[in-house]
Amino acid sequence: MSKIENAVISVSDKTGVVEFAKRLQEMGVKIFSTGGTAKSLRDAGVAATEISEYTGFPEMLDGRVKTLHPKVHGGILARRDNPADMTVIAAHGIKTIDLVVVNLYPFEKTVAKPGVTFDDAIENIDIGGPTMLRAAAKNFKDVAPVIDPADYDRIISEMSTSGGGLSYDFRFGLALKVFKVISGYDAAIANYLKTAK
């Protein structure tokens, strides 16, 4: 199994993320992050590179576009055993991303609030998060997709005993969880929209 070298961490629910990132950093993992997550990590002494610094593009459209970039998705989706993929990403200065740690905007909590507006609900539909997670889950053979803070300790434990990697079965389980959670998230959005207008 390959060692995890680069991780993207961008979370709405920051439960346990600082300690998790510190442990990853101790294992030599380079961390890329966005906005509020990057600030939380840096404030706690974790060296986190802003995604915008890596891609050369700023976050834009009031934060609607942060991670939707070939330097992110190329690094997630590149098949490590496909020489053509690896040649392409090398030619474009794209690093492989081995771990994607994302949880989603709290859509269901937002729409459950009394008096929430339709516009507030729409702005709490996560786009970049599910996109990164789906990409990582699709390429679980090479990338670990992490959507649940409850998995942080398990990940650190497995990495600690395996030389810094995660087994195929472990990554498969993480991918399955991602697709289950995202399907529920999309269903909640659809159910809201059916009754909102």
Concise account of the structure shown:
This protein has helices at 17-26, 35-43, 51-55, 70-77, 83-91, 107-112, 118-123, 128-138, 152-161, 168-196; strands spanning 6-11, 30-33, 48-50, 99-103, 144-146. The chain is built from 10 helices and 5 strands.
- What amount of the residues lies in strands? 5-15%
Give the helix level as a range of percent. 40-55%
Number of helices: 10
CATH T-level fold name: Rossmann fold
What is the CATH level 1 assignment? Answer: Alpha Beta
Number of domains: 1
Largest beta-sheet characterization:
5 strands, parallel
CATH architecture: 3-Layer(aba) Sandwich
Shape: globular
**Rounded average pLDDT:** 88
Radius of gyration: 17 Å
Largest beta sheet: what is the strand line-up? 3-2-1-4-5
Structural class: alpha/beta
Sequence of secondary-structure elements:
EHEHEHHHEHHHEHH
Which regions are unreliable across 5 or more consecutive residues at pLDDT < 50?
none
Termini separation (Å)? 49 Å
CATH superfamily: Methylglyoxal synthase-like domain
- Number of DSSP-assigned strands: 5
What secondary-structure arrangement, pairings included, does this model have?
Elements: E1 6-11, H1 17-26, E2 30-33, H2 35-43, E3 48-50, H3 51-55, H4 70-77, H5 83-91, E4 99-103, H6 107-112, H7 118-123, H8 128-138, E5 144-146, H9 152-161, H10 168-196
Parallel strand pairs: 1-2, 1-4, 2-3, 4-5
Helix pairs in contact: 4-8, 8-10
Write up this protein.
- With 197 residues, the chain is an alpha/beta fold.
- It has one domain: Rossmann fold.
- 52% of the residues lie in helices and 11% in strands.
- The chain has ten helices and five strands.
- A five-stranded parallel β-sheet has the order 3-2-1-4-5, with helices on both faces.
- Helix 2 links the parallel strand 2 and strand 3.
- Helix 4 runs parallel beside helix 8 and helix 8 packs antiparallel against helix 10.
- InterPro entries: MGS-like_dom, MGS-like_dom_sf, PurH-like.
